[in-house]
Amino acid sequence: MTAASMINNDMDSSADEEIAGCLDLSSPKSFFLFAGAGSGKTRSLVKALDHVRRTFGETLRFRGQRVGVITYTNAACDEINRRLEFDSTVEVSTIHSFAWSLISGLNHDIREWLRTNLAAEIEELKALEAKGRSGTKASAERISKIASKGKRLANLNTVRRFVYSPTGDNRGRDALNHSEVIKISATFLQTKPIMQSILVGRYPILLIDESQDTNKLLIDALFTVQSIHRESFALGLLGDMMQRIYSDGKEGLGQNLPDDWATPGKRLNHRCPKRVIGLINKVRQTVDGQEQIPRSDSAEGWVRLFVLPGDTADKPAAERAVAQYMAELTGDNDWTSSAACKSLILEHRMAARRMGFLEMFVALHQVESFRTGLLDGSLPLVRFFSEQILPLVRAQQLDDRFAVARIVRESSPLLSGDKLRYAEDQTMQLRHAREAISSLLSLWHTDASPTFGEILGNIAASGLFAVPEALRPTVDRDVSLSAVEEDGELDEVNRQTEKAKAIEEFLAAPFSQIEPYVTYVSGKAHFDTHQGVKGLEFPRVMVIMDDTEARGFLFSYDKLFGGKEAGDTSVESTRRLFYVTCSRAENSLALVAYSIQPDRVRQFVLKEGWFESEEVIVGIPGH
Question: For binding ATP, which residues are annotated in this chain's numbering (predicted)?
Answer without folding.
Answer: 35-42
